[in-house]
TrEMBL record:
Alphabetized UniProt keyword annotations: Membrane, Transmembrane, Transmembrane helix
Transmembrane domains' residue ranges: 6-30, 37-58, 64-83, 132-150, 156-174, 186-203, 215-233
Name recorded for this polypeptide: GDT1 family protein
InterPro entries: OFeT_1 (IPR031594)
Pfam hit, one: OFeT_1
Entry keyword Coiled coil: no
KW Transcription (keyword) present: no
Amino acid sequence: MNVYAIGASFLGTAVEFVEALTIILAVGAIRGWKSSLLGALSAVAILSILVAVIGTPLTTTVQVFWVQALIGLLMLLFGIRWLRKAILRYSGLKALHNEEESFQEEVERQRKAGIVSPAIDRFAFTTTFSGTFLEGLEAIFIVITFGLSAKSIQSSILGGILAVVVVIGLGIALRGPLTKIPENTMKFIVGVMLTSFGAFWIGEGLGVSWPQKDVSILYMAATLCLFSWIEVAHCKRQLNTSSQSNSISIGVN
């Protein structure tokens, strides 16, 4: 078992399924738990099949240089997207993601959807199925890529399963959206991980000889964390300067 693969997969999957859980809870509270859970479970079943079908063949071809480069590129692009959002949120240029607000917005959308069907409510089923499936696709990408990069797909799958179990368990226990989970921080960490691994794997695919081999990933992760927080501080200063300038202009006018 690879502890790193388990931890990275756990964090990434947990982030995605916290958002899926918020949708499931909102739909279930308004339009009924039967349709809500059926839609979510159907999505999970299909996603599980995809992991089995996609993950296993990739483990046999992962040594091919172009496969390494392609997976590395996908990880890099995915990680940069998460990292960019995290920088914008922590600098104040983008609102922090709030599960309570997302829950209330989804509740209102479900209330406006019309009459609830006494059998299987199609709107509820479709909402939870699509929400769980889309969030799950991102989780699958995280699970497979971390598993392949760590050369331990089983460990990565275990981390993903543990994340799903923990999120569902907390949702049942609290009976509400998981507002206390530091989702934005988790996204920042996973973004750094994905970007670091992506850069490393692109290099591997192109034949780069990394100093100290896999340890180079830690150096890249540390460098990304440093430059990300420098960028956050810079954006905050720019935002404060802009706000002060606008205040002065308003005062003068």
